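> forwarded from #structure-qc
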């Protein structure tokens, strides 16, 4: 199940970024919605899994909104210039799917969770920039991403412990 979760997250991430960069959001958001639905259907506690998705989507969207309003990041396919795009919200949902499955090993090690966020968050945005879905607007962007993700990753993992739809 953890391997499938990892593969679906990576596929969903790529499809989201591709859809944003190539103006194919209806198709990419349909794929992501199906991945999220499969995740919820696999959960033994569907309500908890669903609540976790919404909490992380909200929390992550607030972070990305802060990046947007401070002009540290711009996004392709923003229907409203001052709001984070739907594909970013969807990607936070994808991230939420990993917290109790393929990233669950990070829950027991705070230092690794911080380092994972510190390195992994900026790498994801840099990769999205290379695929023309995101633009890091200045040299402070990478520092803001590293700091934000080093905080958000352990926070999200902590929240996931409470809303673990995959507990038996």
């Amino acid at each position: 199940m953890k391997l499938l979760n990892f593969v679906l997250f990576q596929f969903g991430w790529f499809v989201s970024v591709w859809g944003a960069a190539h103006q194919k959001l209806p198709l990419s958001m349909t794929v992501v919605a199906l991945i999220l639905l499969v995740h919820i259907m696999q959960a033994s506690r569907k309500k908890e899994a669903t609540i976790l998705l919404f909490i992380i989507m909200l929390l992550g969207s607030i972070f990305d909104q802060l990046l947007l309003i401070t002009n540290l990041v711009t996004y392709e396919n923003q229907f409203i210039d001052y709001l984070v795009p739907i594909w970013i919200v969807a990607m936070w949902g994808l991230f939420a799917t990993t917290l109790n499955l393929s990233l669950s090993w990070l829950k027991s090690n705070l230092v690794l969770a911080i380092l994972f966020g510190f390195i992994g968050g900026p790498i994801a945005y840099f990769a999205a920039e290379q695929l023309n879905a995101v633009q890091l607007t200045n040299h402070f962007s990478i520092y803001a991403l590293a700091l934000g993700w080093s905080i958000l990753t352990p926070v999200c993992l902590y929240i996931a412990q409470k809303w673990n739809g995959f507990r038996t």
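QC bot note: The radius of gyration is 15 Å. The longest strand covers residues 73-75.
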